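ingest -> validate -> predict -> emit
validate: passed (alphabet ok, no gaps, 266 aa)
predict: started
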Amino acid sequence: MKRLLPLLLILPLAGFRPAPPPPPVYEGGPVRMALVDRDRGTELRSYPAEGQRWVAGERGHRYAVRLYNDSPRRVLVVLSVDGINAISGENADPSQTGYVLNPGQRADITGWRKSQDEVAQFVFSSPSGSYASRTGRPDNIGVVGVAVFEEARRWRPAPILRRGLPLPAPAAQAEAAADARASRIEGNASKSQAPALGTGHGAREQSSVRDTDFERASRSPAQVLQLRYDSARHLRARGILVDPPSRLPREPQAFPNRYVPDPPAR
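emit:
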């Protein structure tokens, strides 16, 4: 008999976006992961280098870990931020508690879990100001990872109340193929370079979840993903070509002003 841990089911009404189950075939594992700069409202692009994936964060900005369940079944995702379980606060291990995602669900995890109704926001901070450093565990600052488990038993998802929430963006297959072909970028800086960013314990905000049962299909995760993050300056020092923050181009507008301005004086 496998031991059942207390697990958290992400509620679609808590700011998360469910989607219809995709086709039963998926590539590269059941889950995709990205980081989202919540202050800019953009999903951060990842760059291949040194055999890993890197994203450029900005100190002081709030961020979220975005998870896509591309499979037709529920999955359990154990989330590690700076080497710490984002739910329990323990040193992260795949055997620990995690979030359960419904088939096809997209979810934004926005902070350290404080209760079933509240989190402390993930914020890009200085390494010394990170939650890991402040709790005496600075060795794994600068990395976000997930261990994904498939469910052992057959399960039919309950109907989801959508309330007009938008569907997730389609899988970026072309980008994934390009990433797979991308050559390794050799860094100009030492691989032991200390990170310039960590993840702070930010302001509290509402984020509701509830307990659920989940029996893992195996003791070992079906998939493990990780993203390294650092400042853009540090990534460039490693030889990683980081694009500047995207800005929408200025286009002609039919209604650029609310009122008619005075003409210039002659």
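The longest helix spans residues 173-181.
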